[in-house]
Amino acid sequence: RLFDTPPLGYAERKLATGPRGGDVFGLAIDAEQALREYFALFYHLRPAGAALERLGAIDFATTVAPGLRDVLLTGKAYEAARRRTRSGFAYHAVVLDGPPTGRITRFLNVNTEVAGLAKVGPIHHQAESIMNFVKSPRTAVHLTTLLADMPVQETVDGIGELRAAGLQVGAVIVNEVRTPLLPPAELDLAAADRIDPALVSAGLTAAGLSPSPSLIGTLRRQAGEHAARVALEERERAVVAELGRPVYELPRLADGVDLGGLYDLALALCAQGAA
Questions:
Q1: ∠137-138-141 over CA atoms, to 5°?
Q2: Is 36 helix (H, G, I), strand (E, B) or coil?
Q3: Which of 76, 183, 206, 211 is deepest in the core (most CB within 10 A)?
Q4: How far lies 35's CA from each of 42, 48, 57, in Å?
């Protein structure tokens, strides 16, 4: 929906052109189709895959087998990142939307478990190849967070787990950043509940509004809440800055995210040197 296109299927399809050129392609990874492709690409078992589907084995495996969906997701990203054309790699970058931060390390390490279960043979070698790729300098895990207590703490914990597992940590992208509506001095007054009611009344009058006591009180209370939120975000921003990773901030879009908003966010990342 965000790219204003029909729902994605398993086939790669052009979604947009980047603000600095280049095309963006996307697909939705369907576990059953990925498993059939997995058989065909890595084990040359396309007929066997069709036979398994007729028997219902593919549906059973993708529904019941623990971790198999994660294997297929990482395997598809691995295949797309290694794919070559006559002029070089098919894609400059491959982005896989991963699970929540608390599950990302286990998700990316699933092929280590598979390689451990299958000590020899093609499954072992394929799983090992994917893990070597996932842990190589070519791969980085970028984390997104909000400037709030729990999301930032999850990011801190997630980075620690990724590093302990030997996975490369990329950037931290701070989402929905609010722009302070008041200058620092007035934020301090709002936080201390010391905004002069007369100034609020004068502002309402200048805007053509009736400065009723209830409206003045509501605005002063909202200013205090805004000041508290800004102070919280500044504290969390300091925690993020201490993580030692590049940090990029994306503004909160008041009207929600649509295709135009996506381009605004892309330009914001470019302006900060993220691309």
A1: 85
A2: helix
A3: 76
A4: 10, 11, 11
Of the candidates 27, 25, 52, the residue with the CA atom closest to the CA atom of residue 40? 52
**pLDDT tens-digit readout, 109-159:** 877 766 565 565 666 677 788 888 889 999 999 999 999 999 999 999 999
Nearest to 172 by CA among 134, 141, 135, 138: 141
Greatest CA separation found in the chain? 80
Contact 128, 110 (CB under 8 A): no
Which tokens go with 29? Answer: 């990874």
Closest CA to 168 of 144, 130, 139: 139
Nearest residue to 29 (alpha-carbon basis) of 85, 94, 125? 94
Grouping H, G, I as helix, E, B as strand and the rest as coil, residue 40 is helix
Strand partners, 84: 89
pLDDT at 222 over 50: yes
What is the identity of the amino acid at 168? Q
- 173 near 144, Cβ under 8 Å? yes
DSSP letter for 11, please: S
